[in-house]
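hiii so my PI (J.) wants the whole complex modelled not just the main chain, which honestly fair. so below is everything: two entries, each one labled with what it is. i double checked the lines twice but i was tired so who knows lol
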Amino acid sequence: MATLQDYTSSRDAFSFWPRHNEAIAARLESKDAWLEQRRGHAPADLSDDVLEHQMTLNIGPQHPATHGVLRCLVKLNGERIDKALLDIGYLHRGIEKLAESKTYQEFMPYTDRMDYLAPYANNVAWCMAVEKLVAIEVPERAQWIRMIMCELARLSSHMLWLGVGLMDAGAVSVFLWTFQGREDLYSIFDEVSGARFTVSHSRIGGLVTDLSPRAIEMIKDFSSRYQGIIQGWRKLLNRNRIWIERNRNVGIVSRAEALDLGLTGPNLRGSGVPYDIRAFEPYLKYDEVDFVIPLRDEGDCLARYHVRMEEMLESLKIIEQCLVRLPDGPIRSGDAKAAYPSKSEVYYSMEGMIHDFMYTETGVVPPQGATAYHAIESPKGELGFYLESDGTGCPWRARINAPSFTNLQGLESMMEGHPVADIVVLIGSIDPVMGEADK
Amino acid sequence: MALKFHFTPADTPRGDETNPHAKATTEVADTVQALREAFGPAVQDHLTYAGEHTVYIAAEQIVAVCRYLKEDLGYSYLVDLGGVDRFVEDGRFEVYYNLVNVAGRQRIRLKVRVEEDAATVPSVTGIFKAADWNERECFDMLGITFAGHPDLRRMYMPEDFAYYPQRKEFPLLGIPGSLPLPPQTPEGSLTMDPYAAAHGQKPVKSYEEPRSSK
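here's the output for the full assembly
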């Protein structure tokens, strides 16, 4: 344990957590690079040529291209990365620990702050995990609305990935266009839930409010307009020589390696593994709509780009089908032990008020020893919650399987062997969100 | 007439066999049977809830079981690995493995239970590279060590941190002084407790620091 003496004797601002940095340096030295294992050649011995070629570069945690507080340590040979190490945890808030002292419903706003580019998908993932643990059935209409909103969240996340990824590669105009799209999406989220960013609209057992007619109009308008707009972006980029040269053959991960490294989401499907939770274990109504899971075999950044672009178009297709099939009916379970009562029940009936109080105080109570894992296909990949109950209203253990965390682990290996300039492209194409990776 | 007092009847556990969210992929009774046949007593227990199968494996056999699942039964994708603090005398910690067979559309959960004073599980990084960071995270949060892990550093917390925050006895507000943060002014001293007010002390405000003499 570091003592007070350790810290007060070294007053240099950069010597914080001295053991931490020592451990990273030792690991960077001892690491057996993926490149060596894969291609069977060791990096050249450059010990007599120190000034010319060798350098250890510390990128981040505060760096625009890292999409958050990601710290990369790279050992360079000239411009090529021999070894790479990622240091995460700069946004660690311990939300798994916090979940243990909250009721199931109370924890939901924390999920907004995990993958903050697609908060709706996180809300739904959490609610569905709890619903599985307690065996709550959700009304049809709520399921279709959740699907619409999850796909809008996917579009929002992929639009940010596209704009920021291109800005990293040097094209600023697409960033402005995709943010226009995100602005439209924010307006929809605002109309639906009353919040633009951290929506918290889903509830255990259903939703908090129904879609207003205006919201449905806005979603219809969005899905009809953006079909053409996204095709326009593809037209620009699919034949853009700079974009293709920056992405093709960069960060190649084969099918077997992708599975071994545990990549998930579009990164896994870009390597040719047909694993999408929407088809693998369908949740909500995904087994009733018609959509294609984009798949590429190349496994490079360009393949991941194509997968995400095609996914955006598929999302629009899913939204249109959902809007057609959206049934009438309740949006929340009628069981007072499964979901909140409606506001009118709370205001005008004694039972409604008691139920509201009880639900806030205790909430859903899964049986003792119940365990459940439920995953959804979030924009970044498989987002799963593993819950264990001790028979009280708070989870005994809430484990988050965050897609960005597993994807970043793969990134560490993918960087090796590439020039420094490819780091930004690689980080962009993996699309991590540190709020989720750091929990 | 005195009013009768009614207790709210206890909620009976809802049946898990009718779980509306149970998935076809977690129906892996044949895999459990194959594990029982191949490993016999190393398969200690088998639970089902919400249509999911949890198989308890003896800690020393976990690597062999994972290799068997990967090479013979096609479970080549490690989705998740995490630890649980049960906070009981016997078998305090659990590590669980969430494995997926992509082609066969199956998902299984393995669990390993270890004692508090011998909280060591053999590492499965040799079989699934994906286990690397997850095992580090489990070590960081719960203090379970993984024998044979190539790089068992902390995942989120700095190496200088001396506690395991996900353990149940770790206080929710943290331990004052366990993780100093940079001073709030160039001349100031280290911030030993970022949550001083919550711990009943007066927090140092940056604007209350003495002005720099320069």
